[in-house]
Amino acid sequence: MKRYLFLYFVVLTIPLFLGLNAWQSNRYIALQREIKRLEEAQAEWVESNRRLIAGIAVLSSPERIENIARKDLGLKKIEPEDVLQVKIGEGKGIGL
C-alpha cells in the first residue's frame, strides 16, 4: 500500500513540477520583454535630455542674449568708465 501511495505521489508531482517550470519560463520571458522596453524608453529619455541640454546651451549663449538685449530691448553695453560705484564704509552707526 505504501509503495502505491509513493508511486501516486511521484506521478502527480512530476506534472506539477513541469507546469511550475513552464510558468516560471513564461514569467522570465515576460520580464525580459519588460526590461527591454524599459531600456528603450530610457534610451529615448537620455536622447531627449541631450537635445534639450543642447537647446539650452544655444538659447543661453552670451551672444544671443546680447543680440536680444540690443535689438529687441534697445539696451546697450555700458562702458567701464560709465559705472558709478558707491561704497559704504564700515563706521559707527547713527546713534539716538
Rg calc: 38 Å
What is the number of helical segments per DSSP (H or I, 4+ residues)? 2
What does the largest sheet look like? Answer: none
Which of globular, elongated, flat, extended, rod-shaped describes the shape?
Answer: rod-shaped
- Secondary structural class: mainly alpha
**Helicity range of the residues?**
over 70%
DSSP E strands, number: 0
Proportion of residues in extended strands: under 5%
The H-and-E topology, N to C, reads as HH
What integer is the average pLDDT?
89
Q: Termini separation (Å)? A: 111 Å
Low-confidence stretches: none
Q: Can you walk through the features of this model?
A:
It is built from two helices and no strands. The chain has 96 residues and is mainly alpha-helical.
What is the element layout, followed by pairings?
Layout: H1 2-59, H2 62-72
Features:
2 helices
Quickly describe the structure:
This protein is an all-alpha fold and 96 residues long. Helices cover 72% and strands 0% of the residues. The model has no long low-confidence stretch (mean pLDDT 89).
